[in-house]
Amino acid sequence: MKVLAWVMGFLLYGVCASAQIYDMEKGKAAFHSEAPQELISAESVELKGIVDAGKKSFAFRVNISSFMGFNSPLQREHFNENYMESNIFPDASFAGKIIEDIDFSKEGSYTVRAKGKLTIHGVPVERIVRADVLVKGGRLILSSRFIVSLADHNIKIPRVVSEKLSPDIEVTVNATLKQRP
Amino acid sequence: MRYLWLCILVAVSVAAQAQRPFSRDFRMGESQSPVNVNAIAESPSGYIWVGTDEGLFRFNGRDFVKITDSANKGVTALAALGSEVYAGYADGTLACLADGVLRPVGKAAAGPRSRVQSITAAGAGLLWLCTEEGVYLYAYGRYFRISGAQGLADNFTYQLVAKGASCVVGTDNGVSYLRFVNDTITARRYGIQDGLPDNIISAIKAVPGTSAYWAGTHEGGAFTFRLDTNGMHGVVAGYASRGWGQVNDIFAVSATEAWAVTEAGYLLHLRAGDSLSVVPLHFAGKKIRRLLYVRSGNLWLATNEGLTVVTISHASYHIAGAPYFFSTLTALTGGDGRMWLAQGRELLSLHLSADTVVPAREAMLPAAITCMYLHGGQGIWLGTFGRGLWHYIDGRLRQVKGPAGMDNANILSIAAYNSRLWVASLNGVDELDVSGDKMVPVAHYNKAGGIGSDYVYQLYNDGRGRLWLATDGGGVAMYDGRRFHRWDSTSGLTARVVYSIAVDSFGHAWAGTPDKGVFRYDGRRWQQFTLQNGLQDMNVSSVMANNSGQVIVVTQKGVDEWFPGSGLFRRFNKKTNLDIEHTSAVLNCMARDAAGNVYVPFDKGFISFTNVSRPLDIRPGISVNEVRLFFKPVSYRSTFGHDENQLSFQYEGINYSNIERLHYRYRLEGYQNEWIYTDDETVTFSRLPAGTFHFRIQASLDMDFEEANEAVYTFRIRAPFWKAPWFLVLSVGIVFGLLYAYIKARERSLRKVNELQEERLKFEYELLRSQVNPHFLFNSLNTLSALIEEDKDKAVQYTSQLSDLYRSVLAHKDMDLITLGEELRIIERYMFVQQSRFGDALRLSVSVPEAVMKSGKVVPLALQILVENAIKHNTVSRSAPLVIYIEADELQVTVRNELKPKITKEKGEGLGLHNIRKRYSLLTKRPLVNTIADNQYVVSLPLL
Questions:
Q1: A115 vs B contacts (CB less than 8 Å)
Q2: Residues B220-250: pLDDT tens digits?
Q3: What is the domain extent for residue B702?
Q4: Which of A107, B60, B105, B759 is 20 to 30 A removed from B294 (C-alpha atoms)?
Q5: Domains, chain A, ranges and CATH?
Q6: What Å distances lie between residue B95 and B143, B325, B630, CA to CA?
């Protein structure tokens, strides 16, 4: 009931102040593991997200099983089944607030800090992530690069693959969001 | 359940800085694997409390003890207040540890739901919590939330400072300054626009007693500012981010000095002037969450791996590389920002503040350098073995020519005093004027001249107009400008050979000896310090004092640092895990800079014992942790039953530098008032008597307990109830009561018996009197005489009846009761006697059932008296005969007659009836009824 009220409120708010809201046009999330014996890269183009410039808040979400790439189909299977347990934790998300006071109505390029809960493998971790924002033609073009430590998210790496999988994964996010008319 | 987990040592961290702290890592946990530490606090007892992802731990310097917590949650914040410790959890709940048990605080439903970032204890039961959803105040058992709605700049809060009716909060959106006036909150926000280096204020601390604050940020480093009711001013902004990471915690030493720790593993020493200067120390691979400055002067770092202790505030070290060789070092001096080293014939120098740790070669002398003296602004004087005195200034070295023999002298020590240079050689001490190019001898002192010895190991100018001399054979000598003073063994200075002498900041002289430890002179007497006082070794090679009261004693086993306030030595050696393998055996091979910091060489470079800015307390703490009753742990109790008289106390000392040296002494006041000295950590008292006891336990690092901390456990053993005063009083009362009641009852029964006796006597008397009533006798005798004439036989019968009557009366007078039948037989005889007189005018009608004759009992002669009364008081005539009826049932016997009163009343009216009534009242409660009804006089006697 409470959730419903919240959602309703959010929708109403969205309608009223839609000028401040940016919706995902196209988004890409990629990760890169650089271990002594193997380099692994994968990316998903199914990044979803919303930025509310008025409230200085944001929310992003990506489906784990949408990641493509990897060095073999088996690796992708292990990724989904052994490490990320994507059947239990289907999504990774990052939602929170923007620290810097940026006037998104002015075109230009900005660097902001996004602070919020990064939830991967069902484990939320409070993070501050640096992002570059380009405001141009009613669009926000975001790019960000940050490190995700597997241990922080309770992702256990079997010893046999410790040489093949880095404990710290580099994540890159590129997204274009369009202002809601 | 209690776990003891050993702490382990990890290697001393290596930093790229010239000056580095001694540090030591501790890990807790079953597998000794890294545990993320979120919070750390020190309680007054001295314990360090550690909040980790795996729960709360207590640390005493040796063992980590996990505090059992049913919830088994990660502790994210801690605050120690008095004997209580408050723990905040990742889920927003709060618990209080008191008497060894963690109990929830407040109703969780009303409190925060997100991680408790920090707890600030403002007083008993008054706590401030920083959370991700604003600030919570816990007061009077309730939670109050302050969020954006009340003006808080951002709901994500890190730390706060509470001051009276205001509080200063670090948030994600700057500093919030909240003031509480008459139930309303006025809020002000300070951010980047006010000169702050960043809006994310991740740490904030106040400088006690001032309006100054220190704060740390996410990317803008640390900064300091002042904040009062006029607002924020005087911001000294931080350094730009240099990859040192987010400041997680800060410790404000003063308005100009602070320590900060960062996410990237840096301990930053901050000094604020016009700008902020920072000295970083890196702990590679660690994320430092929290910082605790404990009273012993150590900094404790809570990291993602465990705990790290850092000695930086009072001792640190400089690493010196080649050509520094510890084993060839012969002399040391410093004071001009440089360390001067003599290694054999070679003179080296080292800039202490520089990053470089490689000493520079300065000069080479023709003979081994034995001693050096840095003569402020006048270069260095160097003493050699066999080649006299040398002078080195601005890169120029020259031998100082002087009196004969001096050129080849063996110099042991040099000091400036009274604008002269004093030089000790194997031939006594020379006072030289060195103001010119040559040295001009002024005076020569030797054994005969008052020093007491020709060999002087050290000359020490104490800056108070006194020159002290450490001699071989003459003990200590002191020159006050006029004459030498010396002390014999009656002064307490039992050593005659003194290697080293120094004067501390209190003006007390310290003498180091080769076999008797050190002696301290307080102006009156010398006091000896030996192994008993915590000294590592009796063979002391050097003694030096800094400017804040600490005295550094170097022996071949290590270094001991004396802390005057605590009255204890702190020990530094390889066993204390500070990575000190060797210390120099060369006499007086240490240096003191202009500020008073002392430098001691060791195998890796120099240890600097710095002046401390605040008094340090290194005395061990003490805590009674468990009380056992008959060897079973009991929860904290102060009263025990009379049979609960075997108690064990488990206690432990708390010390973080030299816990291996702990000694204890205890006494049980009220039982045994002598101190018992022990190294055990448990003591058992058996068969304790009743009473009130104070168990006092003290801990010390040596056998001196003068300044020791003490823990007291007061308890009472109740007296058994039969020894309790109330019971004694009650018992005596009951005994007296019973005795009294018995006596009373006995008295009453005796009185009753007496009364009965008396009544009977009276009755008998009355009876006898009535029976021997002269009228009765006269009448009877008249009747008898008449009968004798009329009827002899009847006269005989009458006489026998009369005598029978008297016999019966006499026979029954002693008895209490007789049967109704017997009584009636007496009445028959009596009636026979009376009827002989009255004839038919008197008649008796008896109607008594046979059974009642035997069962019913009456007072003897009672009926006879009633019958007699009837005859006595009524007219008896032939015309109107008197009929006396005696009737009885089960309960009573009734005597009645028709009332025909005589005109003249007889004497003794009513006495008989009165007597009967009285006797009956003594025998029974049933009443004797005496009525006049239908002209009938009726008396009913109860049958007994």
A1: 156, 172, 200
A2: 899 999 998 888 988 888 676 578 899 999 9
A3: 621-717
A4: B105
A5: 19-179 (2.40.128.110)
A6: 14, 55, 31
